[in-house]
Amino acid sequence: MKFFIDTADLAEIHEAKDMGVLDGVTTNPSLMRVASERAGKPLDFFDHIAKICNLVSGDVSAEVTAVTFDEIMKQGRELATIADNVVVKVPLILDGLKAINALLQEGIRSNCTLCFSPTQALLAAKAGAAYISPFIGRVDDISSDGMKLVQEIIEIYTIYGYETEVLAASIRHPMHVLESALMGAHVATMPLGVIKKLVSHPLTDIGLNKFMSDWEKFEQQSDTPQS
Question: How far apart (Å, rounded) are the C-alpha atoms in residues 129 and 109?
């Protein structure tokens, strides 16, 4: 499974990259707003995406802010010129599907976002999306089953041999990551906080504290003069 970080914050991307676990980045307009607020100044969108692309060798999803075919195409083409690893993020709407197919004809890959049903995912795969992004957490938020959505998409894609990669999104906690991995999702994108939670385990902490305590006692014994 590939790990993407869901952020537009350069410091967070650096930290995940230094851990050696980062395969790519997903961004969206909301994350860009947060990154701008943290920076304390307005960010140039295209320049900022270029900086992210320079940080990672894997795919970087940059989202259009249009809802009509012509405008999605215009923005998609512009985004694709930023770097070779840019993937154009397109909403799962009628004009979005048309644009995904048209962009593919021009050699531009897309990440079809805001997916909330397996039939939507089926349409995205048929249109030629490189990635489909089912939003697990947001489905859970309406008392439905986000993980079931991921499972159904994977089953459909496997049955028909679609090459679209399932990118589990809106991940809220480590169990979302674990279940997505067990189901065979190709990618999980998550905030830095969730990546850090994957590292933590109470038995690791207990074991490490025991080792450090015993090592301190060993050093004290070694420093004690022998009679």
Answer: 7
Ramachandran assignment for 46, one of left (phi > 0), alpha (psi -120 to 50 degrees), beta (any other): alpha
Residue type, 220: Q
The predicted-structure confidence for 4-46, as pLDDT tens digits, reads as follows: 999 999 999 999 999 999 999 999 999 999 999 999 999 999 9
Look-up of token digits 């015993």: 214
Residue that wins the pLDDT comparison between 61 and 224:
61
Q: What is the DSSP string of 81-112?
A: TT-TTEEEEEESSHHHHHHHHHHHHTT--EEE
- Distance (Å) of CA 50 to CA 16, 25, 47, 60, 141: 18, 12, 5, 10, 33
Ramachandran assignment for 5, one of left (phi > 0), alpha (psi -120 to 50 degrees), beta (any other) = beta
Q: What's the average model confidence in pLDDT over 147-171?
A: 98
Query: Which tokens hold the place of 59?
Result: 């795919």
> pLDDT tens digits, residue range 58-117?
999 999 999 999 999 999 999 999 999 999 999 999 999 999 999 999 999 999 999 999
Active site residue 17: no
Angle formed at CA 59 by CA 180 and CA 160, multiple of 5 degrees: 50
What is the C-alpha separation between 56 and 75, in angstroms, rounded? 22
In 10 A of CB 184, how many CB atoms? 14
**Which of the following is catalytic: 17, 51, 74, 89?**
89
